[in-house]
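Posting this for the archive.
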Amino acid sequence: MDTCQNIPCARNASRPGSARSKRASERLLKSSTEYLEEKLKLTVNREKSLTVSVFAIRNFKFLGFALGRNGNGIYIRVHPKSWKKFKSKLKDLSSHRSVQSIKPSLCNIKVYARGWLNYYGIASMKNNIDDINGWLYHRIRMCIWKQWKKPKTKVRNLIKLGVPKDLALQTGNSRRGYWFTTHTVAINMTMTKERLINSGFYDLAEAYQSVHVNY
């Protein structure tokens, strides 16, 4: 028989509990409620406190988290709605339409992303973080490219950063959109990962590995 995971949800409770049967989960809910009310003097909303099987409810969400199950057992993951909110916020912070200066924007991204990772760092999400990290790198390159504005400024900066003159002229005078240009050879040569990090880019993949290991 599969293990039945049950979570007693109580207001002000910080972590879920798990039990192997419905009866056990009800005992856990009772003891948790008594502890919260009698020891911590907190108020538990008994109408909203219940035991449920997290796998019986599709996309079950608890404090922004969800549970997954694979061949190695059960693991904690970030709920899809939490991912969506995270990416939406990063998109706002890295919009080439609103970013006026790159360094303050990088600082704002770092503050937000660091707080998010400190909260969700316990979850398994390496592949998702790698995907968002690559996407965010391109968005930052896009912001920088737009801030260079005039073609002659773009050409001058590309040459200054080591791009051959012919390639710099071709890229700097291109009429293609910002997103397309950030994937070209010239941009990848100049706006490297190392240069962006030195300018203040908060590498999500490296930060996640650091946070996740400490849990």
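The longest helix spans residues 126-147. The CA atoms of residues 8 and 50 lie 5 Å apart.
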